[in-house]
Design goal:
mainly alpha, 2 domains, two-stranded antiparallel ribbon
Length: 183
C-alpha cells in the first residue's frame, strides 16, 4: 500500500502529524480507509464521537493535509498528497493496522452494503490487510463474477497493454474463462 518515502520527508510529515494530536489518530484511521474517505465511514470504523471527529478533521484541513468536500456528516475528504497518507499509515503499528482494516471491512459490510456490492475489490483489500483469508477470497470471487463495464459505460478509453488491448477478444476470453473457473 505504501510507497518508499525518503527519510527526511517522512520525518517532516510525521512531525507535522505529531503536532496535531489527537487529529493524528484520525489521520491514521483515514489512511487505512484510503486516499478518499467519508465522514460516516471514518466515524463508524474509528469509533470516534462526532464532535471530536469534526474537530480533528478541521485541524487536518487547516493544516492543509486533507481536502474537504461538503458538510459533515455528508462530507467526504481526500488526502492532499499520497505521501501524507503514507506517512500516517506507516505511523501505525502492524497490529493496529490489521485491527483497523478489520473494522473498516466490517463497517463497509454492515453499514455500507451498496459499497461492498459495487466495489468488492475495496472490501477485499481490507479483508486481505486484516488477515481474513476466507472473506478476502469471497470478495475477490464476487469481483470476478461482476460483469465488466461495457465500453460505452467506461469512464476512460481502453488503452493497449503491451500488444493487447483490454477490449481485445482473446483477452476477454481469458477473463471469462477465469470467471467460469471461480464459479
Amino acid at each position: 500500500m505504501t510507497r518508499e518515502i525518503p527519510a527526511t520527508l517522512r520525518d517532516s510529515l510525521t512531525a507535522r502529524l505529531d503536532h496535531l494530536e489527537p487529529a493524528k489518530e484520525v489521520a491514521q484511521v483515514a489512511a487505512v480507509i484510503g486516499s478518499e474517505f467519508s465522514f460516516e465511514l471514518l466515524q463508524t470504523a474509528g469509533s470516534i464521537d462526532e464532535p471530536k471527529l469534526q474537530s480533528a478533521l478541521d485541524k487536518l484541513v487547516d493544516a492543509e493535509l486533507i481536502y474537504a468536500r461538503g458538510i459533515a456528516p455528508e462530507a467526504t475528504y481526500q488526502f492532499k498528497r499520497a505521501l501524507i497518507q503514507d506517512a500516517a499509515y506507516e505511523g501505525l503499528l502492524k497490529t493496529r493496522r490489521r485491527e483497523l482494516h478489520l473494522r473498516v471491512a466490517q463497517t463497509i459490510a454492515e453499514h455500507l452494503p451498496s459499497v461492498a456490492e459495487e466495489h468488492p475489490e475495496l472490501i477485499a483489500r481490507h479483508w486481505t490487510e486484516a488477515g481474513e483469508k476466507e472473506r478476502r477470497l469471497a470478495a475477490w470471487k464476487k469481483k470476478l463474477r461482476k460483469p465488466p463495464l461495457s465500453a460505452a459505460h467506461s469512464r476512460k478509453p481502453r488503452k493497449p497493454i503491451g500488444r493487447r488491448s483490454l477490449s481485445s477478444e482473446p483477452f476477454q476470453r481469458e477473463v471469462n474463462a477465469t470467471r467460469r473457473n471461480w464459479n
